[in-house]
Amino acid sequence: MNVQLFIPCFVDQFFPETAFNMVKVLEKLGCNVMYNAEQTCCGQPAYNAGYQDECRTVATKFIKDFKTYDYIVAPSGSCTGFVRNYYGKLFDNSAVHNEVKLLRKNLFEFTEFLTDVLHVTDVGATLNGIGTYHDACGALRECGIKTGPRKLLEKVKGLELREMNDSEVCCGFGGTFAVKFEPISVNMGEQKVHNAANSGAEYLISTDLSCLMHLDGYIRKHNSNVKVMHIADVLASGW
């Protein structure tokens, strides 16, 4: 099976090891992984800031870069959800309408590709410790992803998965929200970290590094013992 990688901006710039770990897992499961180095942003930051015309320009390039019949897999529910749910509004009745339909059909967040397309829940990973899962807004609300990541984590040898309070509540990042409403954003992040710690978790795991980057900022400042991990990094552990 051929798989095209979509690596979001912040993963490319700040957490490239997660992208490599996603490749590691996909190749172990028999996928032929390809990467178009011409790819850039999906346009979500511009759209969320109110710059729809600028977003449309970036998104037009994205459509061109991912004009393929292959599956497209991304380590981000947020970016996946944006393309699925907003590209239709940006390009409805346009010359690229059919290309957008194909793109939305072929694009999957990493964990849903494993569970819904490959029908895999056990990748042979090992991580000793206690973990808890944060439902990122993009994955949960934009893509409907909830049970898949938990099924994958439950199969990780040595990992005890515990539910924390308010796992579905936003962590406070929200892209530009964290900039425009910093005090609220920080307090929401604080509550999420406290809920994770109160569950006894050593690892705070999610599908989205944007959330984890935000939470890790609070963790580092306040010397919490909780460690953030993207689920791709968890699934690539121990083999």
Automatic annotation (TrEMBL):
Signal peptide: none annotated. Residues 3-82, 132-216 form the Cysteine-rich domain. GO terms for molecular function: oxidoreductase activity. It comes from the Bacteria. One of its GO terms (cellular component) is cytosol. This is L-lactate dehydrogenase complex protein LldE. It comes from Chitinophaga terrae (ex Kim and Jung 2007).
